[in-house]
Amino acid sequence: MLNLDLLHGMTKRQLIDWMMTNNLLEALKKCEACNEPLVLKPTKRNHDELGWRCFKSGCLKYATWILIFPGYCCRSEAVIICHLLLVDRPSTI
Ligand SMILES: [Zn+2]
Q1: 85 contacts 19 by C-beta, under 8 angstroms
Q2: How many helices (H) and strands (E) in the chain?
Q3: Could you give phi then psi for residue 41, rounded to 5 degrees?
Q4: Measured in angstroms, how far is the CA atom of residue 53 from the centroid of ligand 1?
Q5: How many A from CA of 81 to the centre of ligand 1?
Q6: Distance from residue 60's CA to the centre of ligand 1 (Å)
Q7: pTM for this prediction
């Protein structure tokens, strides 16, 4: 079960790290195009403030941003709750 008190004081980044540690989000992801590990980078492009990117030179998806959250249809209840908490957090970047 989720301990919501624990999550309440976290920043967006801490919440995402917590979700990755608890296997609610993928902590490692590979590029769909070249199969190299993607790099997690801060961004202001989405409200998660993090995204995956491929930095393999020559890759078709080079530097393309990939969202850290799965599509709505694929989200578990825990992921939906955490994402709602995350959206409420003030920006840290
Ligand atoms: Zn790639």
Answers
A1: no
A2: 3, 2
A3: -130, 145
A4: 8
A5: 31
A6: 6
A7: 0.85
Residue indicated by tokens 């403030």: 49
> Around Cβ 83, how many Cβ atoms within 10 Å?
22
Strand locations in 1-93 (E): 39-42, 50-53
Q: How far is the CA of 16 from the centre of ligand 1 (A)?
A: 23
Distance 52 CA to ligand 1 centre (A): 11
Q: Using alpha carbons, select from 81, 58, 72, 64 the residue that is nearest to residue 29.
A: 64
User: Token pair for residue 60?
Assistant: 């078709």
Q: How confident is the model at residue 4 (pLDDT cuts 50, 70, 90)?
A: confident
